[in-house]
Amino acid sequence: MTHSPHGLRPFGFDGPVDYIERITNDIWNLPGRDPDLIRRYYTPGTAIHLDAGDLLGDEVVITNTQARLRTYPDFHGIIDDTIWTGSEEDGYRTSMRWTWTGTDTGGTIYGPATGLPVTFTAIANCIVRGEVIIEEWLGANPLAQARQLGYTLEDALQATRYPQAPRVARPAFDFSRTAEGDLVRQAFTGALDGRVESGLYAADCATAFAPDIQRDGALAMTEWADGLRNALGPLAAEIDDQYSLPASDTLPLRVATQWRIAGTGPQGPVEFSLISHHHLVDGRVTAQWLAYDELALAHHGIVLTQPATAV
After folding, report:
1. Which of 30, 67, 80, 311 is placed for a possible disulfide with 216 were both Cys, Cβ 3.0 to 4.6 Å?
2. The domain 9-159 is classified under which CATH number: 3.20.10.10, 3.10.450.50, 3.40.50.300, 3.30.70.120?
């Protein structure tokens, strides 16, 4: 069989999950982590899209990685899940959700070393051709890191600089709509409109609103959506990419979605990205993870009230 250059198997990887999880461990995790491998799996033209401003190229990724490891020498990440779509012939799209921990012994942009531990989550959506990531969207919330280190929102705002008008980069392809994807769209956009439907959300649905803010129950989703809508007025949510994996013996049906959300804040129109993972059981959302940049919104005068409800 002749392999397309888009495929992973000619490079020694057993599909997209093996690829994205193995290179993540090899680059960032001890023992044996090697940030120089970024030059193998990223290119000078790879764009990493964030609301904090896009990164371009492997060398920038290496520089940022080295800075993170100086802050957290004991940095270690655990991959929670990888949802994917694609083929050897067409290439792959992967959505990897992971949790990393570290102790601030090297200092951050917010201030000198605190000696405090941090637990951080992020979702990275990658387009993979051959063994190379050609484009990436990163959902992460740096304000959660600042909070865990004891810094205030004002501290974080003073220490960071964000684009005046961030633009959400849209993938240059179409995705196929599915029944499970439509269920997630209906549940999530309904919540944004102020209608958390009990038929679509399980009563004990678990939601990670930020790395340090996790709540159970539909009421927490109502509070979060109300806070977002109150801060941004009427919201428009569009899906830029979406794909899913069927249920297995150990995992429920999982859906990865790349959202673009627009509204109006105190400084005018604003658009931001949010990447989500949803678990579905019997047609209801039983768990969801929402990855977005709370600090980027704060730079536009949009301060969210996170849900306080815990069931």
Report:
1. 311
2. 3.10.450.50
